[in-house]
């Protein structure tokens, strides 16, 4: 009877395995399940061929560490006396079409890769297949044929703003390996710290590797830590990390920023600056720690005018630095930055202006191109290629350069059309420093990037034809660390979004399914728990969607949650909680509190104030579309009754325009008396965001009613009419500030205009 129960239980378990979902991330191109499972235990043997011994040892170590199983590792020529069952066979064979194949039966498992990298990817699939039941470890019977869609599958980490030690970086690389990434972009230098030892220039780490303090809170900060902060990697540590990544078949691309984002290097060696004797540039809003004399590593975030001077000394310095970088990194590419390089100091430098004339360059953009091309020529001689952010397109493209397109996809499209290799990494879908939650629970740089939006990213723009699309190597997600100060926060920002971008990069579109991926989210969370890694549950949070009513007389608030069996409750002002059953129609100023109810307990309560005025919920039209990077909720963002209280950190509540003037047309349901109009806009010059230059009001016949020149720095600009008017439609022209003035961050560039709300009273 007892034996019968055991047999019955095992049969039921096999049935469970048969119908269990195969939860591999990224989703393989082909999966076919069959009945049965393979039992892994200490009797299991891992067999390797002449190419796969490292893979066998890696698999043995993973099974020992995570499942307390120590299978034998045996060379294939030595298996004559072994039973044919309980074998995991690993091999590199060129008859596997462009990828790997995994065949698991009750008796054995065979994994073949067309090369050692793809075989390693197959091991990750095997590890994700493992099921534990009744203290036993199983692999379901399955056939997998798989290959990556893109050749470049990257993740980035900025260690300049906040430093992560070798153990942290290795852990990060393990995450990348698990999800089949093959590239780690290591951002090693910036204004806030130089993180790699250069033996010829020891001051780069002795001085450039540390700052005297760091702002507290969101830029521009509410204080300063007043504590020396920093760190760097020795060349021995760099080699250690590179080797660790290589064993996981991950290529590391180092980034050495130039010609901008150079404050840390200039602090160490001031003669790299156009103006070595000038003191460090400190924004008026920065709360500074320590001396302000001479050059210093920056203590705040943003873009700074003190950039590399294009002198013989600078080029020799950079060549010397690169000579020490090149032997450390086997990567074909060296990332040279090239982004956000202000031209202000070049404009006022007599040397730079003479150089522009001598080299017959068009302007300072041409000078940047000259700078980049000179570095490219040097690296090409050393057998390396450069890759840089899309600003390297400005002023003329370096002949052999590749581009990372971060300011949208336009730079990538332009580069691909010129037959240059491209890695897509637009901020709209690939910046994991942006918040994943609508309800901010920690300080971030701003923006809103939910999980589903990451998953729906398509790296190949529709503007490219077949011949142009081949230059899109792939994509990567970026993790900038201004507000990521520790490992727990780093994990919180990447999980589960790293799994979504992994599937974007690996799986062909026809084999992707958001509905299937959605079912894997709990699996991702469980994996994080195994790693003891932090993760973000924002996907299951309460989501609020604000839209105009059909008649434009009110606004509609719809609440939803992906959490199973979620009970949603809400209250108006300080009233009692009510059960949410349908979208709420709001037609007066109030505060709506809403939450999920679990076990009759209110979870995190969100309070959203709504400010009603004569424009709220009305029909609104714009003369130009907002930037793709800052679309907000479209034109409706300006009449949704929600006031922005967190600046750029809540940029999803705003719509942004880069250099554009905008005409706003608001139509009322009936003739409406208008006394004054308030334009809510942001003023954050450190981020290149300025108030409008002027505001003009017109009636529907385009007759000018009132005009105001904006001269102060208040975020709300009020235009009071000389006399009351009654209109059914009003047109507001909001003129962009224009070009950022000399001496300010981003000088010479177009100012951004961020609009949040229009109030009419």
Automatic annotation (TrEMBL):
Matches recorded under CDD domains: GH20_chitobiase-like
SUPFAM superfamilies xref list: (Trans)glycosidases, beta-N-acetylhexosaminidase-like domain
Enzyme class label: hydrolase
Signal peptide as annotated in the record: none
EC number: 3.2.1.52
UniProt keyword annotations, A-Z: Glycosidase, Hydrolase
Reactions this protein catalyses: Hydrolysis of terminal non-reducing N-acetyl-D-hexosamine residues in N-acetyl-beta-D-hexosaminides
Annotated Glycoside hydrolase family 20 catalytic domain residues: 150-508
InterPro entries: Beta_hexosaminidase_sua/sub, GH, Glyco_hydro_20_cat, Hex-like_dom2, HEX_bac_N
Ranges for domain Beta-hexosaminidase bacterial type N-terminal: 22-147
Family statement: Belongs to the glycosyl hydrolase 20 family.
Name this polypeptide is given: beta-N-acetylhexosaminidase
Naturally occurring in which organism (per UniProt): Ferruginibacter yonginensis
